[in-house]
Amino acid sequence: MSAAALVEIKRLQLARELGLVDKDVAVPMSIFWQIPQYFLLGAAEVFTCIGQLEFFYDQSPDAMRSLCSALSLLTTSLGNYLSSFILTLVTYFTTMGGKTGWIPDNLNEGHLDYFFWLLAGLSFLNMLVYIVCAKKYKQKKAS
Q: pLDDT digit string (tens) for 79-100?
């Protein structure tokens, strides 16, 4: 999310320099600016999925391995619903009083970068909660 925020800052800066802020047109910026964020997101997804499967098969009881894999997919779907809820909240609170908001129809007028920074901050808080839970976790003894 931080990489996406930095790219969005660059895109908004380019839109201001070219006078495109009030116009509903695309900013002439190469699509290749998105490579770092997609690379990071893809790598994180791969490591997370493999780590989850390895954890479930190693640490869960034999009879619950399939259930744990299913619960892993359930958490993904719940995360998508949570993402939609966060987007709805951000839209509601940033458009109060007739303001443009962070995510308007014309992205050149908005601040999508603020939304990405918010998601980066929430991800950081999530990582802190994960670290606390991971420190308290007791491994299953090898059988």
A: 999 999 999 999 999 999 999 9
Alpha helices in 18-142 (DSSP H): 35-59, 65-94, 112-136
Q: 3-class SS at 32?
A: helix
Where does the pLDDT of residue 32 fall: very low under 50, low under 70, confident under 90, or very high at 90 and above? very high
**Tokens at 68, concatenated:** 């744990």
Backbone phi and psi for residue 67, each to the nearest 5 degrees, phi listed first: -65, -40
The residue type at 84: S
Cβ(25)–Cβ(40) below 8 Å: no
The residue type of 115 is F
Alpha-carbon distance 102 to 90, whole Å? 8
Provide DSSP, 18-30. TT-TTS-S-----
**Is residue 140 classed as helix, strand or coil in its secondary structure?**
coil
Domain ranges of the chain: 2-136
